[in-house]
Amino acid sequence: xxxxxxxxxxxxxxxxxxxxxxxxxxxxxxxxxxxxxxxxxxxxxxxxxxxxxxxxxxxxxxxxxxxxxxxxxxxxxxxxxxxxxxxxxxxxxxxxxxxxxxxxxxxxxxxxxxxxxxxxxxxxxxxxxxxxxxxxxxxxxxxxxxxxxxxxxxxxxxxxxxxxxxxxxxxxxxxxxxxxxxxxxxxxxxxxxxxxxxxxxxxxxxxxxxxxxxxxxxxxxxxxxxxxxxxxxxxxxxxxxxxxxxxxxxxxxx
Length: 254
Known about the structure:
With 254 residues, this protein is mostly helical. It is 46% helix and 6% strand.
């Protein structure tokens, strides 16, 4: 159906407004480059306007009307731009707000304080390391004449006894054997019943902490006991000091 819009000079404002309204419905939003709206008025509404608007709203359709009473430019020129549908933002993990960050920091501080209290406070025993089991003395070879009770004696008392022995060669041999037993116990080395001092020394791991001082004690004791070389007091005191470093720095005295 076509509608003929005719208007005379005396009725021009009303007819022009109707013409503008009709073109606005047909063409959609006006282009800002072709026409300038200077004056608008409430559009006329029919008896079923509200009913039609509600039906369109239920269908999800947005409606609108601009009733123009005065404008400049040519409404027929130009081209109405079509708006592109808004893109849906990508799903992103929500960034923590300032309040959330503060809450997380407070929780972390509380957990850290609790762990420190458990470690160093009254309940520190819960997180402390279990005490190491007392190592059993290494069985000494039969020819050494050293019992398990002799090995558990205080090393300081043992050193005093060795220093008081008048036979310096025998004192060096006794010092050597106790140092070998201490080294075997510290390195979990098992000695055979028929081992000699040198055989027991060879069983020790090469990376042990006092392997070189123990080798010196072994050499001096062999020279004095088996070689018959006299033991000078200065050499005896130096050898006793090497043995002190081995006996007093073991697992029980570290």
